[in-house]
Amino acid sequence: MNSDTPAKAKLLLVDDEHDLLHVVSLRLSVAGYEVETASSGAEALSKIPVFRPHVVISDLRMEGMDGLALFDAVTRDWPTLPVIILTAHGTIPDAVEATRRGVFGYLSKPFNHKEMQAQIEAALKVGGGVPADAESNGAWRRAIITRSPALEAVLAEARLVARSDANILIRGQSGTGKELLAQAIHRASQRSSQAFVAVNCSAIPEALIESELFGHRKGAFTGATHDHPGLFQAADGGILFLDEIGDMPLATQAKLLRVLQERQVRPVGGVDSVGVDVRIVSATHRDLDAMVAQGQFREDLYYRLNVVTLALPSLCERREDIPLLARHFLDVITQNTAYDVKGFSPDAMARLIAYDWPGNVRQLFNVVERTVVLATTALIPASQVERALDEAPAELPSLVETREQAEREYISRILTLTEGNVTAAAKLAKRNRTEFYKLLNRHHIDPALFKKRR
User: Fold this and answer.
1) How is 234-276 classified by DSSP, letter by letter?
2) Could you read off the pLDDT of 99-111 as tens digits, one per residue?
3) Which CATH entry fits the domain spanning 10-126: 3.40.190.150, 3.30.420.40, 3.40.50.2300, 3.40.640.10?
């Protein structure tokens, strides 16, 4: 593999010709890639959330879902995942249609393996790549604990946009970790050696917010006993994170817009402006589109801030992360304390997974802390969790009630929770093993892929 190619790059190879699948997989493995194979589009879709490839390489003509249909499905759920199409039917219309729809690369069979490798390397660069050092690969996102495909897709987009200087708007419910994502973007950006300054716009009184953001001169108002540079100047060269931007007063919005346009701030009570080089990452749980329509948020500022939008999923949309987060929080809370709590009972964990979590990750931390503080046994029982939640937990949706796509996602999440244990997964899904295996076969899901790799 070329020295510029990131180490441990993961490729998903899709083809219904088993001999070709084997040969190409072998050559790519020898070239230094980690390769997973699928013999159909449906099987590929079931493997993506678990294998998490950096590039998908798919045959165009396959039984059932063809390469372009697979590309459409990949683009819908994993928009930053590059797809390379292979075909023995190298016609101009095929190539035009593939590139028109946004396929990254297109190769005709028989193809040159050096050309394929060149396309893979180019796709890895476009898709964000994989750093050669596996530790550095996770350093930028070290505070974000997840194995959720939904959140992983957001992180992939975040890593891509971090390389630019475009302003970013992070949307998400309260408690979903918007500031953690902003900090991760800062660590992955070229401004990582400079300041990351965070301010909650809803926590500063309206009379003081301009002074906090833009600074003030001595004597500008009662109590201004000295010059104050403000947060824009404090973040010069780095990133200013404006949390709850939807709560910013309209008068301050106008002044913020002028700062973004002119790249200069004028402190309150000052005459001269000061140049600043600041990238803005903002966040909100509010519907800014509705606020713009109602005249509560400036439209011109909205478009300045919303160059790129990242939408964080709620905790109930990433239930597979609940056991990970609960165990992590328990470790954090009990570290260097006298609490002799080892974990949650199976029933207690099931109740945590089933709950709707309106307060998201922040609420989960509070519940775990409450159960640890009041624990009288090494394993926290379900009754203690229910007491902390102070209400009966919601039930997980049944497989019968879901459609095909939702059913596949449901099964994948259960296998993730049980780490590939089919017996435990079938019990959690309230199906016997025979029925569950039929579901696995219908969706082309291999439980072995969900087992932890040592």
Assistant:
1) HTTTSEEEEETGGGS-HHHHHHHHHHHHHTEE--BT-SS-EE-
2) 666 778 888 777 7
3) 3.40.50.2300
